[in-house]
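Hi both,

Apologies for the delay on this - the queue was longer than expected. I finally got the zinc ion-bound model through. Below you'll find the protein sequence and the ligand SMILES exactly as submitted, and right after that the C-alpha cells for the full complex including the ligand.
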Amino acid sequence: METSMPFGIFIFLVNFLRYLIVAGIPFIVFYYFLKNAKSVSKLQSKFPKLSDYQREIEYSTLTCMVFGVVGWVAFKTPFYSYTLAYENIEDYPTWYFWVSIFLMILLHDAYFYWTHRLIHHKALFKNFHALHHKSHNPSPWAAFAFDPLEAVTNGCFQFVLMLVIPAHLYAVAIFYLISLVVNVYGHLGYEIYPKAIHTHWLGRWINTSTAHNYHHHHGKGNYGFYFTFWDKLMKTEKLG
Ligand SMILES: [Zn+2]
Ligand SMILES: [Zn+2]
C-alpha cells in the first residue's frame, strides 16, 4: 500500500480513528442517550469518573502509536519477506479470504488467552497489565488502555499471524475491525446479549461483556477474548 505519509503514521491514524469511532459511538449511545433508560441495565451500577475516561483514552492513543510501529515493522521492513502475507487477492480462492479471517480470530483467541494468563503472573502484572486493571468498571474507551509493554505484547500478534496464516492485507484489516468491535463490546459496561446466552448450546461458547466485566471487577477469571473454549478447558471461567 502506497501512502504519501510514512506507513507507520498511516497505520497509527487508521487505528486511532477506528478506535474513536468504534468506541465513541457506543459510548455516546449507552453513557449519554441510554444512561437512565430502563431498557438497558448497566453491569455495575456506578459510572466511571471523568479521570477514568481520560486515562483510558490517553493510554489507548499510546497503544495505537505502538500498533503504528508494529504495522511499519510488519509490512515495510525485511521481516515482510519472511511472512506468508500475499498481495494479489487472486493468489488464493475467494473462499479462503473469508476463512483466513476466521483462522485469525481462532489464533488470536489462543494468543490472547495465553498472553493474558501470562501477564497476570505476579512477576509481570505490575509492568504489563496493572494499567488495564485500573478500570475496575470499564467503559468502551478501555478497549486499548494498556501499559506500553502490554501494547507491545498484543501488537506482536501481528508478527505471529503473518508467519502462520497466509493473509491478504484487506483480510487483516477486516480481522482487526472485528477484533476491535468485540473488544469494545467486552468493555461496554452493559450486556446486550440475552441472559440465556450462557446456557444456549452455541451461545455458551461466545465470550460476553458480562464475563469480561467480571474480569475487571474481580481482577481474575474469564481471560478469553472471543470465545470461552480456553476458559472452559483451563477451568478459569467464572459466571457472575
Ligand atoms: Zn486481565
Ligand atoms: Zn479488559
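Main takeaway for now: The mean pLDDT is 95.

I'll put the files on the shared drive as well.

H.
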